[in-house]
Design brief:
The chain is mainly alpha-helical. It folds into 3 domains: about 45 residues, no CATH class; about 100 residues, no CATH class; about 50 residues, no CATH class. The chain has 12 helices and 2 strands; from the N terminus they run H-H-H-E-E-H-H-H-H-H-H-H-H-H. The protein has a two-stranded antiparallel sheet with strand order 1-2. Helix 4 packs across helix 5, helix 4 packs across helix 7 and helix 11 packs across helix 12.
């Protein structure tokens, strides 16, 4: 069993795609091969996989805790019972949040999106699905102006690339590249490959060949 994800997509979308395909791996094992695309997005198994991915990346309990930490998502009124020192009894009242303090804005959505490694849009839809925002609020948050403001918020905090930047192929293969470089250095040190071959290996894995050769010569001199 294998999952293939479009390497050209940004990090948040790749994460969602992986969770989506994980759902297929768990729930649709009878399928030989499947491609998730816009053409079949309305099929029930694709919608189920999307729902799974949203819940997997943005779990309800975690999302509610994050909203609580942000001071959002609280009820309009909360009953409070406090001890009355004068009478030895209790006083009952209501705690009301400050006006507009419970409004979930673009900055809250962007913060939540980054916190859970999801896209801004996915965070909005999940908040709506869990009834933390209504349809008009969802429409406003998904407007181009609000979405761009959310991205600007992430840029200002140097968080944008964590979810909205493409995945660096160089970063994604660094473990493999480091292993090949180590094997090449060891082979050169033992005289099993030539100087030219070492330079070729450096070119193949995207490492400065001269620096690799310098390190190899240092290793050979030990």
């Amino acid at each position: 069993m294998a999952v293939l994800v479009n390497a050209a997509h940004v990090r948040a979308r790749q994460r969602f795609s992986l969770a989506h395909e994980y759902a297929h791996a768990l729930l649709d094992r009878d399928r030989v091969v499947g491609v998730s695309s816009a053409d079949n997005s309305r099929e029930r198994i694709e919608q189920r996989a999307n729902a799974f991915a949203a819940a997997f990346l943005l779990p309800e309990a975690g999302l509610e805790e994050e909203l609580r930490q942000l001071g959002k998502g609280q009820p309009a009124r909360t009953d409070q019972i406090v001890f009355d020192v004068a009478t030895g009894g209790s006083i009952q009242g209501q705690l009301r949040p400050a006006p507009r303090s419970q409004t979930i804005g673009f900055q809250d959505v962007a913060f939540i999106a980054h916190r859970f490694g999801a896209s801004y849009q996915a965070a909005v839809y999940r908040l709506k699905s869990l009834r933390h925002i209504n349809q008009p609020e969802s429409d406003l948050l998904l407007s181009p102006e609000q979405e761009e403001a959310g991205k600007d918020y992430l840029r200002a905090l140097d968080l944008f690339e964590d979810i909205e930047a493409p995945v660096s192929n160089k970063r994604g293969t660094r473990e493999l590249r480091s292993r090949v470089a180590h094997l090449a250095l060891e082979a050169y040190r033992l005289g099993e490959i030539s100087r030219g071959r070492l330079l070729d290996v450096g070119k193949t894995i995207g490492v400065d060949g001269r620096k690799l050769l310098e390190l190899a010569e240092a290793a050979r001199a030990e």
